[in-house]
């Protein structure tokens, strides 16, 4: 397993992380035993970064990790947790809470559900527009001093907020969507985090399945999960996006690789400060993703990939209008 370092003096983590969200939420029912087997397989393969959120399945994901990590040495696992998303009993998002008292309360419940004394990295899932980021990060900083949190991260925020937060306490990483189909961070956000020596954990590297090579128009019509509400999976947008996937498939076949492996390898190629999060829910999908580590893309490969999937070629936003409005990272 390749490794990445968070900043000059930060923790060393695996070059791929396992995003555990889909095991509890958003992508339809998941098999508990298969989920736990996938977590174990990831750890055995050398992946030590497990990414979760306290609102994934309303605490279900943290409890699942607690069960999966039973008997494992705590120091062998790097657990990253997002917090702050508010949801109603029917699962709808109803806002975000970044108040200092909410930070500490959320952390207390997370520690209990995970069965651990500390969280390796704690981060607000989104920016609370009603609470200055300085107050939110200041509260997490207090938890760092108290020993409950080791490092602080951010998620889906823009360059200005990154600088303000970093001025309160060193930020170890920014978690944000980054893939061949989502490259807006390259304009301002990526240069900013590199200036400040902040790593990037990239989620959505397969664009929620679009770049997996396994998606089709028929499957989209049958999907019963949240992708049915995403613009990139709808109507003419989907038709155009699947054409990009087929262009990428030709390159993958020439390299005896899969579309997913090429998409993941492309993100890995963007720098040693970028860690792709793999949202595998099954061992076979995890094994496929791990194959990206063996796929070394040449300059010619990269040029052909970007010609097949040109910058800004994707059709449709990555979220619906309501969700897009909540992303500080998308504000211009």
From TrEMBL:
Keyword Signal: no
GO CC, any one term: cytoplasm
Keyword Ribonucleoprotein: no
Keywords noted in UniProt: Oxidoreductase
UniProt-listed Pfam families: Aldo_ket_red
Alphabetized GO MF terms: pyridoxine 4-dehydrogenase (NADP+) activity
EC numbers: 1.1.1.65
Domain named NADP-dependent oxidoreductase: residues: 16-308
Broad class of enzyme this protein falls into: oxidoreductase
InterPro entries registered for this protein in UniProt: Aldo-Keto_reductase, NAD(P)_OxRdtase_dom_sf, NADP_OxRdtase_dom
PANTHER family hit by this protein: AFLATOXIN B1 ALDEHYDE REDUCTASE, ALDO-KETO REDUCTASE YAKC [NADP(+)]
Protein name, UniProt field: Aldo/keto reductase
């Amino acid at each position: 397993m390749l490794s990445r370092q968070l900043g000059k003096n930060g923790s060393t983590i695996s070059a791929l992380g396992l995003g555990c969200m889909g095991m509890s939420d958003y992508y339809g029912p998941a098999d508990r035993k298969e989920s736990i087997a996938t977590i174990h397989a990831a750890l055995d393969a050398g992946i030590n970064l497990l990414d979760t959120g306290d609102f994934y399945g309303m605490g279900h994901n943290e409890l699942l990790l607690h069960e999966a990590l039973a008997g494992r040495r705590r120091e062998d696992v790097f657990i990253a947790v997002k917090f702050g998303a508010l949801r109603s009993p029917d699962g709808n998002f109803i806002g975000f809470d970044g108040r200092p008292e909410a930070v500490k309360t959320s952390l207390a419940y997370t520690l209990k559900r995970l069965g651990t004394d500390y969280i390796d990295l704690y981060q607000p899932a989104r920016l609370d527009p009603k609470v200055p980021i300085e107050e939110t990060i200041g509260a997490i900083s207090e938890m760092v001093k108290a020993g409950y949190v080791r490092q602080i991260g951010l998620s889906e925020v823009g360059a200005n907020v990154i600088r303000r937060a970093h001025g309160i306490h060193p930020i170890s990483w920014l978690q944000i969507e980054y893939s061949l189909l989502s490259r807006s961070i390259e304009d301002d956000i990526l240069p900013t985090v590199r200036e400040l020596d902040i790593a990037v954990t990239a989620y959505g590297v397969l664009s929620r399945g679009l770049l997996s090579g396994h998606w089709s128009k028929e499957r989209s019509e049958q999907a019963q999960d949240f992708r049915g509400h995403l613009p990139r999976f709808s109507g003419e947008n989907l038709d155009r996006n699947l054409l990009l996937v087929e262009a990428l498939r030709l390159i993958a076949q020439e390299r005896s690789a899969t579309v997913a492996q090429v998409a993941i390898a492309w993100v890995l190629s963007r720098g040693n400060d970028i860690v792709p999060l793999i949202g595998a829910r099954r061992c076979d999908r995890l094994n496929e993703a791990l194959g990206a580590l063996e796929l070394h893309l040449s300059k010619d490969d990269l040029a052909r990939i970007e010609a097949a999937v040109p910058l800004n070629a994707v059709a449709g936003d990555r979220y619906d209008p309501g969700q897009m409005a909540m992303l500080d990272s998308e504000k211009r």
